Amino acid sequence: MTNKQRVVILGAGFGGIKTAKLLKPLQRRGLIELALVDRRDYFLFTPLLPELIFGRLRSDEVAIPLVSLLDKRTTFYHQEIIAVDLERRQVRLKKTILTFDILVIATGAKADIFFPAESSRIYKFQDIDDALRLSDKIEKALLLASQESDEQRRRQLLSFAVLGAGPTGVELAAHIQEQLLNQQKHFLSAGSHLRDNEFSVKLISRGQEILASFPAWMRAEARKCFDKIGVEIIFNSLAESLSPRGIVLQNGQEIMAENIIWAAGLKAQTPEFLGNQPVAVNGRLEITPELLMKGHRNVLCLGDSSCLLVNGGPLPGLAQVANQQAVVAARNIEALVLNKPLRPFVYKHRGEFLTLGKKSALGNLWGWHLRSRLARIFWALIYCIKVPSLKTKRRLPRYL
Fold first, then answer.
1. CATH number at residue 92
2. Do residues 91 and 175 both lie within one domain?
3. Which helix (H) or strand (E) element contains residue 101?
4. Which range of residues forms the domain containing residue 294?
5. Measuring CA to CA, which residue among 249, 261, 173 is closest to residue 210?
6. Which of 81, 105, 23 is nearest to 300 (CA)?
7. Which sign, positive or negative, has the C-alpha torsion 330, 332, 91, 14?
């Protein structure tokens, strides 16, 4: 083959970065030219983001520079994606136009906040800046409350509501409660107005359960943990609007919450397309079992931006889905380059972990039920293997 195939990957999340790394053999053989595009110049290892809020890890241990992960033959474009022209096989960036023979869309998802006029009052939890902003807010709330003589105002300052009872919401509620319990000890001293247990953390669930996609035993253990540490769960409730004091639910009930954290849902972050629009399901690009965008044999899509219907529903938006899809995507890119048959993707669920504070966790690993300290040890060991940073691998065991 005389002409190299130009492969362009949009997005440097779990799916995009793993696909890029798995394409190194094709680069070494001179079969492809590879370009990666992302608005960030780092890979964010999102499972460790809660550890950043409370100082257990540093920013550079959760956000790993892309230059340290990519092959030297890969061209990285640190730019915003403006649009994709499938007919002309072009990707329009803020400063550049890229042409492609094969395109991989792995642009992920973003917070789906439905309070547009008031979203500045809501704390997202998707990026480094979000985690640092939330950490700063917790510290400031404690400091202001310690200087406030009015009890009602102290309780208002220290009221937290987490919207969404999926894994992110549950982890955040547990970590925030633990942080408040630990930090209040420093303020319960002479000269401080703060009194014991004047803070509150509420988890708002739109359904009858928390962790709806998790095994029943993990849901029960998480509820038991919340009962023990003092997190209040409000079931069958959906936030409708914000009020000066907090949140108004659909049933009219007002929840006092000075600090509101959004973990209620994500929406696909797909690029804008010029010309004919691709088939999408709830904003996610519909793909074939071979991970090809419907109607386009040279465009693959994976991760949260894709929708592969299995048993009537889409696959969950999990890192392990994106990682497994990346393996098949890389193999199918090779097949496209060499004109060989494509492989279908088959998802194999390997379990889930949930941290409930510094020392506690829950784990469902290949059918094993792991709890408390043992789950936390396995959690750290697995992420020591998976995180692509030697610095983070060395630091994680210190927080067991």
1. 3.50.50.100
2. no
3. none
4. 5-39+79-111+267-349
5. 173
6. 105
7. negative
E strand or H helix at 250: none
Mean predicted confidence (pLDDT) in 45-62: 86
- Give Cα 341 distance to the centre of its chain: 33
pTM of the complete model beyond 0.90: yes
Asked if residue 246 and residue 199 are part of one domain, the reply reads yes
- Check: CB of residue 121 under 8 Å from CB of residue 239: no
pLDDT above 80: residue 33:
yes
* Residue that is written with structure tokens 């060499």 in the block: 338
Under 8 Å between Cβ of 353 and 383: no
Q: What is the average pLDDT across 213-234?
A: 95
CB–CB of 302/106 below 8 Å?
Answer: yes
| C-alpha 146, offset from chain centre | 33
Q: What confidence tens digit (pLDDT) does each residue in 161-199 have?
A: 999 999 999 999 999 999 888 887 777 766 688 888 889
Cβ partners under 8 Å of residue 387, min gap 6: 45, 48, 64, 393, 396
Total count of residues recorded for the chain: 400
Alpha-carbon distances, residue 94 vs 42, 206, 271, 400 (angstroms): 18, 39, 13, 44
For residues 288 and 294, the answer to whether their CB atoms sit within 8 Å is: yes
Report whether pLDDT(321) > 60. yes
Contact 98, 90 (CB under 8 A): yes
- Cα 30 to Cα 1: distance, rounded to the nearest angstrom: 9
Secondary structure of residue 85 in the 3-state scheme: strand
Q: Where does the pLDDT of residue 119 fall: very low under 50, low under 70, confident under 90, or very high at 90 and above? A: low
Q: Which two tokens stand for residue 201?
A: 């953390």
Non-local CB neighbours of 369 within 8 Å, separated by 6+ positions: 217, 363
Q: pLDDT higher for 395 or 205?
A: 205
Place of tokens 């992302």: 38
